[in-house]
Amino acid sequence: MDNKENLKNSGSKFNQEIHSEIVRAGKRTYFFDVKSTRNDEYYLTITESKKQYSDQGKFHFEKHKIFLYKEDL
Q: CA 45 to CA 38: how far, in whole Å?
């Protein structure tokens, strides 16, 4: 059974994750996620995550996300 058949048999298909990769580049981390829509069309999300420090030494993650759909390529 291929990936697409597994998704059809797994119930809800909305925002179903197909594949994910994590790439660490210095102080930044990139997440590449291929997902499917309700209509079985694929799209790619690219998320950049960077650790930011406050003056008190606490940190939070600043994230930026891009969605790429088939018609955008």
A: 16
